Amino acid sequence: MKKVAVVFNGGTISMKVDERIKAAVPSLTGEEIMSMVTGIENYAEVESYSFSSKPSPHMTLEDMVELSKLIKKLVERDDIEGVVLTHGTDTLEETAYFLDLTIDTEKVIVVTGAMRSSSELGYDGPFNLATSICTAISEDAKGRGVLVCFNGELNSASEVTKANSMALNAFKTPNFGPIGIVDNNKVLFYRKTIKHRVYNISEVVEKVALIKCAADMDSEYLNFLVDNNYKGIVIEALGRGNVPPKMVEGIKRALNNNIPVVIVSRCFEGRVFESYGYDGGGKMLKDLGVFFEESMPGQKARIKLMVALSSDKAIDIKESFKRNTNHN
Ligand code: ASP
Fold it and tell me: Where does the record place the L-asparaginase N-terminal domain (predicted)?
């Protein structure tokens, strides 16, 4: 029987409603959650690990580094087929992408959780865990980087984002949809996985900021970041990758101080491109030397910039944000 390591790391999947405050709090142990995944022993042997009982807004970058180290060790073991990690859903996409960027393995790593706590009707934790374990033992899931499994849908960590604050199918891949599904324990994929660079890091450069653009914003936040020694800036720009003209001075200042600036869009779908030549338009920003990250929410571009800045091999940031040549 194939063996899967399940690392428990808090989130709603481990929560119950505390009747005194009428709100969900961390309560269940890994063993208690596993005991609800009935019948899984017919598919895989499970080895459980307790990492934390944190709600995901409490996750730190240091936690991500520690998780990456732990999971690297687990996938190096010959007797372990794959790893499943539980995580609160709010920052799950960030940890999943962090692991994807820092663990080089053909083995399957799946991140899952629950949208409803064990006190609610339709608790989805046991189902998500069962389908994640089925994915972890699937031959077809190998070599696809870190996967996120919810509601019987599989998404690549590099592509997924939490798109709904309450629905069971909260995790979506903008532009494409899921990469695969788990249909009655059968794991099926619809398309190829786009491979990306894996970085070797031992700690994280944390001072990377994320700014969301809005109408008529100016350079005040950008100036604050330059003055406070930030090492990188991600801007969730408007539409195709444009900013209000008053932000241009701040971007120039950051670039002149050798602070890389990465532009993504605040739009859920589409991609950024140097389509507009007006003041603050994408063409102007591109010519100034910003990087475009084509289709990714700001919180994930921030993780990528942090990881790239933290790489042991001092990889050129330009290389990390080079446009995929198929996508001109
Ligand atoms: N707020 C919770 C968390 O991220 C939500 C969840 O797990 O679904 O920990």
Answer: 3-193
Contact 169, 153 (CB under 8 A): yes
Pocket of ligand 1 contains residue 11 by CB under 6 Å: yes
Q: Is the CB of 125 under 6 A from ligand 1?
A: no
Q: Which CATH number fits domain 208-320: 2.60.120.560, 3.40.980.10, 3.75.10.10, 3.40.50.40?
A: 3.40.50.40
User: CA torsion 33→53→108→38, rounded to 10°?
Assistant: 0
Q: Tell me the CA–centroid distance for residue 210 and ligand 1, in Å.
A: 21
Does the annotation place 100 within a ligand binding site? no
> What pLDDT is recorded for position 314?
66
CATH 2.30.30.100 at 3-189, yes or no: no
0.70 exceeded by pTM: yes
- Residue 89 known to be catalytic: yes
- The C-alpha atoms of residue 231 and residue 251 are separated, in whole angstroms, by 13
Q: What is the mean pLDDT of the chain?
A: 95
- Cα separation, 295 vs 9, in Å, equals 28
Distance 277 CA to ligand 1 centre (A): 42
Q: Which residue has the tokens 């790489």?
A: 311
CA dist., res. 93 & res. 101, Å (int): 12
Distance of CA 272 to the CA centre of its chain: 19
Tens digits of per-residue pLDDT, 67-101? 999 999 999 999 999 999 999 999 999 999 999 99
List Cβ neighbours of 67 (8 Å cut-off, separation of 6 or more): 7, 9, 51, 85, 95, 99
Tell me the pLDDT tens digit for each residue of 287-322.
Answer: 999 999 988 999 999 999 999 999 877 677 888 888
